[in-house]
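[User] Could I get a sequence and structure tokens?

[Assistant]
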Amino acid sequence: MKKLLCLALTAVLAFSAVACGSSDSAATDSTTDAADDAAAAESGDAAAAEGSTLKIGGIGPTTGSAAIYGNAVMNAAQMAVDEINAAGGINGMQIEFQFEDDENDAERSINAYNTLKDWGMQMLMGTVTSTPCTQVAVEAEADNMFMLTPSGSAVESIAPANAFRVCFSDPNQGMASAQYIGEHDLATKVAVIYDSSSVYSSGIYQTFAAEAANQGIEIVAEGAFTADSNTDFSVQLQQAKEAGAELVFLPIYYTEASIILTQADGMGYDPIFFGCDGLDGILGVENFDTSLAEGVMLLTPFAADADDEATQTFVAAYQEQFGDTPNQFAADAYDAIYIIKAAAEQAGITADMSVSDMCEAMKVAMTEITVDGLTGAGITWSADGEPTKEPRAVQIMDGVYTAM
């Protein structure tokens, strides 16, 4: 608009100079001055755009029992932010990224959200785990702030219209697990050990049980535990063994899974163990004999040893920067930042937009984009925030995750 006004002023001044009989040099001087003003205004607008920032917050457990998840998300998200900034940012904006620890605790997660709001957060990449994510989603809905969780898989985690996710939902993981076991004839007699106090675990279990019958799978033993009884699984394992379970399905997190594998080995029980994305991280459990995880299968959209160029480049860069092999949570987070970039560019997001206006624009844009990421090719989203992509499975072989 400034440029148009200045060009209009140039024409008026030139016309006035001729009409009044002014010299050619006077008209030329006036035109030159106005053109200089226009160029300066345009240059100032460009500089302002280049100097603007988009503040993206992140929340997850960087300490506590689920720290493997949160640190992977924080690290990979920062990698993506650095890459995008080096390539020119989003719509000319540089990304500022700040990550807060919630220790996998809902109350602390809300505190982290408020800390990020005070910092000036305009969008949220988080949270990492389901229960905190569900609570924070309520706060973000009240603020009409756009949020994209990399790994909050509970149905309730993206119930508000402002919330989307990268990972599969719990029901999708449960159904896909039963289908994978059935279609690949892994077992017909299956036991399940799950955490009834966890929305993540119980949600996966419910849809797994519903789909199992369709796949010719008999659930011969069901063993529940809670967060207050997650150190001794001898009863559940004995029930599974006596029932003749060929496979034990573990829709749980890696810490409890490592205890189950250790205790199963101690009682001479050696079934197939099959889990979901919560098992990703079991090879990093302190003081765990990782040889016991040999042959464990898990449904996850990412395998660090995949031979595609994108995965190899990401893994190499992550290992160089952090000295560790990235897990599925890292891949989810890396994709999440690039998904935000794609949607923000589709929506024409600018730094001066309100949080609410950004959210409204991003909600529409998310249903219009298609993203090829580390966790899936041609990923799309529905208005309810759910992604569409193909499930994959990996197996731990020779101490590494191997694509099946």
Observations:
- Residues 83 and 89 are 8 Å apart (CA to CA).
- The domain at 171-300 is CATH 3.40.50.2300 (Rossmann fold).
- The mean pLDDT is 88.
- The chain is about 45% helix and 20% strand.
